[in-house]
Amino acid sequence: MTEVVVTGSRINSRGFTQPTPTTTVTAEDLEKASQPNIFQAITQMPALQGSTGKTVAANGTSSGAQGLSAFSLRGLGAIRTLTLLDGQRVTPANITGVTDVSQFPQLLIKRVDVVTGGASASYGSDAVGGVINFVTDTTFEGFKARLEGGESKYHDNDTVVAQFAGGKSFFDGRLRVIGSVEYNREAGVLAGDFGLNQAGGRDWFNSPAIQVRPIGSTTDGLPQYRVIQGAQQLQYAKYGLITNGPLQGIAFGVNGAPRQFQYGSNGVATGTGAVTNCFSPFCVGGDLSGIIGASPTLAARLKRKVAYGRVSLKATDNDEIYFTVNAADAYSLNQPNTGEEKTGLTIQCENPFVPAAIKASCATAGITSFAFGTSNGGFGPIAVNIKREQARFVLGATGNHQLFGTDWKYDAYYAFGTNRIKLDVDNISVTSRYNAAIDAIAGPNGVAICRDPVARANGCVPLNVIGQVALDPAALAYVLPANGPFQRSKQIESVASFNVTGEPFSTWAGPVAIAAGAEWREEDYRTITDPYGDGLTATAHYNADYPADPLVRTTGNNWYAGNYHSGHGYYHVVEGYLEANVPVLKSDTLGEANINGAVRQTKYSTSGDVTAWKLGGSWKTPIEGLRFRAVTSRDIRAPNLSELFAPPVVTNATVLYKGVATNVLLQTIGNANLRPEKARNTEIGVVLAEPKWLPGFSLSVDYFDIKVNGAISTLAAQDLVDLCVAGNQEICSAMLLTSTTPNTNFVRVQAFNVASLRNKGFDIEAVYRKNLEDWGLPGQVQLRALATHTSSFVTKSGVLGTVPVESAGVNVGNTPDWKATFTQTWTKDKLSLSIFERWISDGVYSNEFVECTSGCPVSTVAHHTIDNNQMKGATYVDVGGSYEVTANTTAYFKIDNLFDKDPVASPTTNVSPGVNPFLYDVIGRMYRAGVRLKF
């Protein structure tokens, strides 16, 4: 049987030392990590930056990435990291083309190879940042199981793991059957409350934010940006706030009782919408009861159910055919926020829910209505439920044969898989119904009714949002219908691949090895969504669950959030490659050296032909254990189905327009004219492997330089708005920011091949093993360190008027200056104890900020001034251990974040949870214990 191994090369040949750095995580390493999902163990590696997971995107509604376990190398994004299972592509779990590692069989994984360099020439598109390959144990014999439970210090995120695997051979090993079933549940850390009340009693949230002054005000020498805690929104309160006019500053409490709102900052309402001593949208301190930053989910609830089977048959002594099936369900739940913050509302003074005192004040002031904002304190949390169901089948053959006197190994397979993604959002409002329901008048007998007769005829029930009052269930059912936004997607992937390797001849320095192959792949997706979000005008699309309603816009985008749209996209690709390894040196005095090169020609149905290549070499010096390696490559990433054919997606966002916080619809659309990205990846390294003068020690240091041209990217909404304000009329044409009609302002974003990326730095890996008995001490010790230093990560948007952005060391992002992990393990007979440290270096909020407290230069769009641009790093300590109770039973424990270190505040200019889960632990101390069985 031929084992598929990813080493940054397709060649698996004796004496071949490949030039591309590869870090291997063994099954033993994974056991020490003791994570419920193998993804959480691998993503701690320093080179993995920007990976998703259950704590990332947990405060979002519309991205579809919630609960998705997808790797990102070098901070280049999951779309530029190729994740494989036994060297094979796996059916995507998202329209972006990324896989969900939660759907992999995990108990049968015997190692994970992480290739931290471009490998497109060998493995195809997406391997710009590198390759992560999960290698299963295809010869497993016997039975094993893992049972585990755990919870956090805060008595949440309780975890249950149950995994079972078995393998058996028959007919003298010619037939082999292997299978596994797995279930695990991580309860997550779901919604907190309004104000500073975090889930589980956590107390580290203090409403951090960046308070922004208008650029035009920065001629006074003071900074434009100020980092604050206790950020208080001045545009809404928990149960309602009058935000403009002569009554500005009146809030509502129990039973609708009016009261003076406490803005903080000694702020006083001006009657024009502004507040003295405050800068939109924040004051500091005051009545923080209605802020929503503490309410989003910190960690999504995640459930995995996976069944895997493999049957292999040796058809001849040299040929094996196999069939694998993988059926997996991954379910996640997140609650993006409690309530729904609404601003820019208008309440008529005659509204029967308006307190009599306010009606009298309206009459005195000579007004008939007032501006109003609320975070809808009685609504409860929104819930986003996502279920990903994978069914994947592989029929393959491996073997070896002689041809022209040379042994040739082959590997061929056909894979077909589907991923069905079901997304449902609960407890969320239809905007037009909400607006109709809060516009009430007195009807017959003084009973409140909806003002709009069309709305009344279609079931409108008035909703009282003025004060802390019991909400009418009928009104809630009208505004928050039981059937919320939904999306049903189907991803289909078909792959046919054939690869062959051999050593057709030799030079004086050794055998020349080649690998060649061809692959055909087809990707297809189709999405259907609910009519309220999609906006299909065909009346037949409406049904009992989503009845036709004149208040519901036929153009869609009717929900507060989660306005999904239907779409379809397809492409296929045909490619072939050739790789060769040529020994060029074999000498006792000069050492050994080889040159490795590969070329791949690819033809995409959507974007034409593109060529990837690599050229590298390795020199084993005559100095024992010392080796040098270098490789340069041209790597590619083709636009995925989302970038090409994504249906319009509309989400809520807040931007600062001329110093005023403005709610907008963020419209994201696809671009069928995109071309493949092209990257140049260069790595140079040195390896010292167990020299005689220090046995048991290994060290590698590798410099990397990745350049991506024609990068597919979109600018952030705020960047687009800033460019518009600066005078870019082309960008202004893609937005509307001055409408006074609620829910009509928008910013449209679309991907283009205009950006470029350049990421530079170096990796360090060191291992030392020592038998302590040599020093008269008991046991053995292993020390391991992995570190990545990102010295520069520059992004150029490609848009006229923008400046390059340096994100290395920006700790609100995902590429800190340094990210490192350290492990110390001591073993003695049946006992093993380990200490783990995870370290993130100190950083900044932005390298483009100018830090100053006085005498500041005038701020610009590219370089804002700020009073404090320092963001602390973090060190987390974990401990774990195991004890072999019997020959078949091992008990173990693990404590993550032993000292319960709180995450560092990550302020933004908008309302947010104020934390960066890409770098920082947001759960707190976690306890886990379990048992492993093996027979």
From TrEMBL:
Residues 18-131 form the TonB-dependent receptor plug domain. Pfam families: Plug, TonB_dep_Rec_b-barrel. It is found in: Cell outer membrane. Keywords: Cell outer membrane, Membrane, Receptor, TonB box, Transmembrane, Transmembrane beta strand, Transport. SUPFAM superfamilies: Porins (SSF56935). It is a multi-pass membrane protein. Residues 1-22 are annotated as: Disordered. Residues 385-898 form the TonB-dependent receptor-like beta-barrel domain. Belongs to the TonB-dependent receptor family. This is Outer membrane receptor protein involved in Fe transport. It comes from Caulobacter rhizosphaerae.
